[in-house]
What we know:
Elements: H1 10-18, H2 23-42, H3 50-59, H4 72-107, H5 119-133, H6 144-163, H7 171-194, H8 198-208, H9 218-236, H10 238-244, H11 248-253, H12 258-280, H13 286-298, H14 302-326, H15 335-353
Amino acid sequence: MITQTRPRDGLEEAAERAFRLRWPAVAGAVALLLLIGTLSVLQGAGGLAPSGVVRAIVGALPGIEVEQTLTPQQEGLLWQIRVPRTVLAALVGASLALAGAGYQGVFRNPLADPYLLGVSAGAGLGAVLALGFGLDLSWGPIGALPAAAFLGALLAVTGSVLVARCSFRTPATLLLGGIAMAALFSATQTYALQRLDQTRAREVLSWLFGRLATHGWHPVSLLLPYVIVAGVILLLHARHLDVLRLGDDEARALGLHPARSRLVVVTAATLVTAAAVSVSGLIGFVGLVTPHIVRLVVGQSYRMLLPLSALVGAAFLALADIGARTLAAPAELPVGVITAFVGAPFFCFILWRGRGDR
Length: 358
């Protein structure tokens, strides 16, 4: 008996192509990240010869033996300062980009970013209290500053949800709660800064502008678990975000629970943002610029948008860190200033082109 299958029409084939992960784009993003990461490791004071750096990195790969030309002191500089800083920049960039893409899917607005729910204001207030007033909330291997920033960010997000009365029925309710909490925490942060002396206020402001200076792998080890856990959760909910783009009524008709999916995505995005802020300070616009650029290139599907945003976000922040170290050498600019110089004009361009509405 011969069974006949219904031929797929052009619309179904087009939809399948639109939501298929484009491996050439992934390969290009990986190549871009590796290129910028290599340039970041090669860049810096210390007199490390590029050939010696390449030999050291290749020799560190399993099963490969290469004659080393760096001195022990130079190898210490490479593996304890340059490489950890590059890896930290990539992880922070990937975290903020993932969170930004998640927030944009939840709020159905490509102009949303990771600080929408008052995360930056809450983390900033925690940093002010830790750096300026000696608040010690450290536990285990986590120092006072990361712990204070982390708890401040979580407190702000919790307040946003409570202000919204835990209602995830519409994106606007949580958005308004975030605006209210950001205003409250920013006002408290400004008041606390005015109570500090000039030296401590300058130290706090330097952290608030964002920085990636690191000595060793400790910040990387703190952030990496959050990136892995939140990244897996967000990637598993990529299909949910695609369905949420249709609206809550349509999502329910397709068997999705919008409130539950939205809560999970917001929680994961907030946790990874708070973790990134706790080790790097406030670095804005990465979560806005990166997903929007990826969206313009590969389309609207979050099954493509999330992984590509993580890769491009990592490359973007690593590139911004190169600019922070070189533009005012031998001084160093806060990396948050570099991302703001790029992100603010890009945000204005988005508004001018009228691409914020879907």
